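Retro notes (design track)

What went well: tokenization of the new backbones is finally stable.
What didn't: we kept losing track of which sequence belonged to which structure.
Fix going forward: every design gets posted as structure first, then sequence, in one message. First example under the new rule, 236 residues:
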């Protein structure tokens, strides 16, 4: 087994120290966001890991193009490494996004455009690794992987622009948060929450209206709790 290069060891230590520094700044220095509270701190890691994942997929596509032009297997190794790293970071971004979504959207997952396309990207590049496992010849494996990485990358910008083309509840992190830039949806924040919960809100409003009618009836004619529940349409 080849000995690990000293430069790589130095980079590992530097990366670890920077991660610890970032975590310390996020949890102990950055103030708590007023509207979302402490869960907003997830953004500092969620956005960063998502960008690392997408840039890694871009590196894999570039490595694929260079390999097809030069035929050097080192570019195949670089592309494969980029995909492996990006899969981990992109999956981390998805998990962190779910942690943020639970208190903000009141759900761990919803099949809106950004989340759906992100899941598709993760599956596409997981299939990339399966493809490599299914081809024994190194040159054929490298050629197939290069072509796959190039075409697979088209799913990445689609994920990025999905919140600008389609109706979505995902906030726009880079760019305008106006409705026009979010596929016609309302702005990020309170209006998004109203859009998410408008069905529940309508249902609760109907229940309140029935409750008001029952209270008025009870004022004229006393009723037991069971009778009141029946008038509200609640099963006891």
């Amino acid at each position: 087994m080849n000995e690990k290069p000293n430069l790589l060891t130095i980079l590992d230590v530097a990366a670890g120290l920077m991660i610890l520094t970032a975590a310390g700044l996020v949890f102990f220095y950055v103030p708590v966001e007023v509207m979302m509270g402490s869960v907003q701190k997830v953004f500092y890691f969620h956005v960063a890991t998502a960008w690392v994942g997408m840039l890694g997929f871009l590196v894999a596509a570039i490595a694929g193009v260079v390999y097809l032009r030069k035929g050097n297997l080192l570019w195949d190794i670089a592309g494969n490494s980029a995909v492996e790293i990006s899969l981990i970071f992109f999956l981390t971004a998805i998990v962190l996004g779910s942690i943020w979504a639970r208190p903000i959207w009141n759900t761990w997952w919803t099949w809106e455009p950004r989340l759906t396309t992100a899941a598709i990207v993760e599956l596409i590049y997981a299939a990339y690794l399966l493809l490599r496992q299914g081809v024994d010849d190194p040159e054929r494996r490298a050629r197939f992987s290069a072509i796959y990485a190039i075409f697979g990358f088209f799913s990445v910008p689609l994920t990025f622009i999905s919140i600008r083309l389609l109706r979505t509840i995902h906030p726009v992190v880079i760019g305008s948060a106006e409705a026009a830039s979010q596929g016609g949806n309302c702005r990020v924040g309170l209006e998004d929450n109203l859009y998410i919960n408008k069905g529940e809100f309508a249902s609760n409003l109907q229940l309140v209206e029935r409750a008001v009618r029952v209270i008025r009836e009870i004022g004229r004619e006393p009723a037991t709790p069971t009778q009141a529940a029946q008038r509200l349409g609640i099963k006891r």
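Added context from the reviewer: Residues 73-105 form the longest helix (33 residues).
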